[in-house]
Amino acid sequence: MLSKQLNIIFIFLTLILILSSCSKQNKSKYLLTYWSSNNTYEIKFSKMIVEDWNKLHPDKLIKFQPVPEGQSSEEVILAAVVGETTPDIYSNMWQGDVETYAHAGVVLPLDKFPDFYKFMYARSDSSVLNEVKSQDGHVYQIPWKINPIMMIYNSKLLSGLGIKTPPKTYTEFYKDAAILQNKSRNAKGYVDRWFGYSEVLPTWWQRLFDYYPLYLAASGGKPLIKNDKAVFNNKYSLQVFNFLRTLYKNNYFSRERLSAQQDIFLSGVIASRFTGPWDIAHTKKFAPEGFRFNFSTIPVADSTNKVPYTYCDPKNIVIFNTCKAPKIAWEFLKFFLNEKNEKKFLEITDQLPRRKDLLANSLFEDYFNNNPLMMKFAQQAKRIRGIEQELYLKEVFDIISQEYEASVIYGVKSTKQALADAEKAVNLLYLK
Amino acid sequence: MIHFLIFMAFPVFFSIFLTFNKWDIISPMQFIGFKNFVRLFHDQFFFKSIFNTLLFLLINIPLQIVVALFFAELLNQKLKLMGFFRAAFFLPVIVSGVVVTIVWQQLYGFDSGLLNRILVSLGFDRIGWLVNPKIAMPSIAIMATWKNVGLYIILFLVGLQTVPKQLYEAADLEGANHWQKFSKITLPLINPTIFIVVILSTIGGFSLFIEPYIMTGGGPLNSTLSALLYIYKQGFFYGNMGYAATLGFFFAFIIVIVVILQKKYIEKEI
After folding, report:
1. Distance from A394 to chain B by nearest Cα, in Å?
2. How many whole angstroms separate alpha carbon A333 and alpha carbon A317?
3. Is A78's CB within 8 Å of B1's CB?
4. Is the pTM above the cut of 0.90?
5. Is A408 on the interface with B (CB under 8 A)?
6. Looking at CA atoms only, how far is residue B223 from chain A in angstroms?
7. Quick one: A366 and A278 in the same domain?
8. Which of B22, B26, B103, B120 to mutate to test the interface with A (most CBs of A within 10 A)?
9. Are strands A229-230 and A315-319 parallel, antiparallel or unpaired?
10. Which of A47-51, A325-329, B239-243 bottoms out in mean pLDDT, i.e. has the lowest?
């Protein structure tokens, strides 16, 4: 009896669902929908820009909303793609994800707009455009914003140890780490403070924030994959693996997972970490009184006058193939990315637009003069790399991460062997 | 019937269909025949994850039975504050798995965890609870025992209370000691409860996911990579839906075999 009643309720609900989805949607006054990330400051910025656009273009109204809440924005976008509920424009796409969507044909090739290259070359240089060019030769994304990875350090702690400048090379890093370690042994002789920390989980994307920036710094921005072949098994990767191996072996970096605790940088448990400009606002807000910090470049094997390369954690803009009015979407993006709006973006979000004239354009001058720490990131932005347009990036990083864990963190395999094994596994991946 | 077809039959048949295809959700499916199965038999990580899951079961099931039975025996006495103790033991069962995992992660910390601080203060060496590949899975099994044992205590309590008191009185008259009463009367008579506990903890053990996902990410050196975590990674990290479905089917096949073996042998032997 109960089962029969449940069946009736179920059929009734299903019918409602089918009928409601079949019924004509209310005709919206908006022509396009734009999703931003759900970062508070980006929401504020995006909302403002959309309002400005809508005032100027009452016949081409755009609806703004932040990406719906989910475990991660990547998952939400994937679900939206599968359910064909994508927005027309999305502005927080990780550069490494675009190739998959381009391959599946769910994002539009932006280089088909006649003024695309003219607009892009005014904003970016050719190396950036080459970096985002898909394997089929088209460009499906606009390089939008970056958060270059640098090394934050506790300047008060370092100066207390007699270290006047942050370590720029591996040798300096070992030396400074040893100084801290010698002064950090507790009564039982155990070390309870470390010079740095990097996430020890073997999750693929963690390597974007330790191995990869160090590899780019060591190699001068060389790629990991070229022509469907692994090219990372080289002297630079070996230098990086050996450097990190030494840090873990000597307990200069902790092998314990410390990230679930209170902020270990602010509490003085670690003296430095690799991070992006998002740490400026966070550190200023939560640092204890008297805490002093600064940023330095990613360490390299040998001292050089040039700023080393680093990973820039690029987030880009795409137009989905569900877009009803691609030309208007493109016009909106040109408006969205005009100089004045990018200045507002910088001021509101404290994130860097990926522009070639960040330090040369007088429009941004005041901001950087008032924000000297952001100036460091802007200077670093001249020597950055994003990520290659490859279909198997996550698997590549997963393979590297597995070998990294075995050799760098636990030392059960030589670093040379680990890189050779990673190269072999990645090449097999591309043979499939 | 309709919801059975939509929510149970369809996913199963669709998954079978997926095993013969390559699919990343967003691109069109590509028929690849038996390639996913061939890949499975060459996938060392999957067999490692199966081994890890079975290791977890091997530690977790006996530990849960012994601990649950011990506390059920204690709680079966006439004690003051009995209601409080029963609630206290059951509390971890209703606490979110994520919360428990994060708290235990702090306890298990190598350099700053509470357990190692206690060990050091007692003059022992620190233990790499989650950083030593040989110890990480047993550590997770201990935590899972703490989390779930409350449920099994309640089940055993119910079982113990069904044992007729006259049997113990008769045994007392024969001069049986506590162990003899326990092994000759209690254990045989709570046999069905033990079997239920074994089945429930086997199912729970096979679905090991949250703990390694949060605490170790499957490390160190894949020592806590559970089968479900690996299947999840294949499906949702790398978009290998067809391969993940194949792994899922193979894993389901293993679960069926284990449960049949348990039913055939353990039920008889207990």
Report:
1. 6
2. 9
3. no
4. no
5. no
6. 11
7. no
8. B26
9. unpaired
10. B239-243
Same domain, A239 and A350: no
Task: Determine whether the interchain pair B110/A256 forms a contact, defined as Cβ–Cβ distance below 8 Å.
Answer: yes
Overall average pLDDT of the A231-240 stretch: 96
Q: Do A192 and A268 fall within a single domain?
A: yes
User: CA A181, A184, A188, A190 torsion: positive or negative?
Assistant: negative
A338 and A414 co-located in one domain: no
Beta bridge partners of A64: A34
If one counts the domains in chain A, the total is 2
Same domain, yes or no, for A156 and A116? no
Look at the block and give the residue holding tokens 């504050």. Answer: B81
CATH code for the domain of B49: 1.10.3720.10
Would you state the structure tokens that stand for residue A142, as one six-digit string?
Answer: 């606009």
Exposure of B121 in the CB half-sphere (CA atoms within 13 A): 7
Nearest to A103 among B27, B130, B220 (CB): B27
Residue A20 included in any domain: no
Q: What is the pLDDT of residue A23?
A: 47
pLDDT in tens, A373-403: 999 999 999 999 999 999 889 999 999 999 9
Which residues partner with A295 through β-bridges?
A152
Q: Is residue A11 one of the residues assigned to a domain?
A: no
* Structural domain total, chain B: 1
Name the DSSP class of A309. P
Tell me whether residue A96 is in a domain.
yes
pLDDT tens-place string over residues B233-251: 999 888 899 999 999 999 9
B120 and A204 in contact by Cβ < 8 A? no
**Cβ-proximal residues to B261 (8 Å cutoff; 6+ apart), any chain:** none
Please report, rounded to a whole number, the percentage of residues in chain A having pLDDT higher than 90: 76
The whole domain housing B175 covers 2-269
In which domain, by residue range, is A259 found?
Answer: 150-311+392-431
Q: Report pLDDT digits (tens) over B158-215.
A: 999 888 989 988 998 888 888 898 888 988 899 889 988 988 889 889 999 999 998 8
Question: What residues pair up with A384 in beta bridges, in sequence order?
Answer: A310
Is the Cβ of A14 closer than 8 Å to some Cβ of chain B?
yes
Task: Please give the average per-residue pLDDT across A257-280, as a whole number.
Answer: 89
Per-chain mean pLDDT for chain A:
90
Lowest mean pLDDT among A406-410, B25-29, B96-100: B25-29
B25, B102, B111 ranked by CB distance to A260: nearest: B102
Coil, strand or helix at A201: coil
Do A205 and A292 share a domain, yes or no? yes
Residue A273's CATH number: 3.40.190.10
What is the pLDDT, as a whole number, of residue B32?
A: 93
Q: Which residue has the tokens 């640092």?
A: A287
- Do A151 and A283 contact (CB within 8 A), yes or no? no
Which residues are CB-neighbours of A263 under 8 A, at least 6 positions away? A282, A286
Residue A254: list chain B partners with CB under 8 A. Answer: 110-111
**Same domain? A367 vs A415:** no
Check: complex ipTM more than 0.85: no
Q: Is residue A5 part of a domain?
A: no
Which residue of B221, B233, B234 to mutate against A (max A Cβ within 10 Å)?
A: B221
Contacting B residues, span 97-116, partner chain A, CB-CB under 8 Å: 102, 105-106, 109-113
Chain A contact probe: residue of B111, B224, B226 with most A CBs at under 10 A: B111
Q: Are residues A323 and A305 in the same domain?
A: no
**Nearest CA among A4, A72, A7 for reference residue A39:** A72
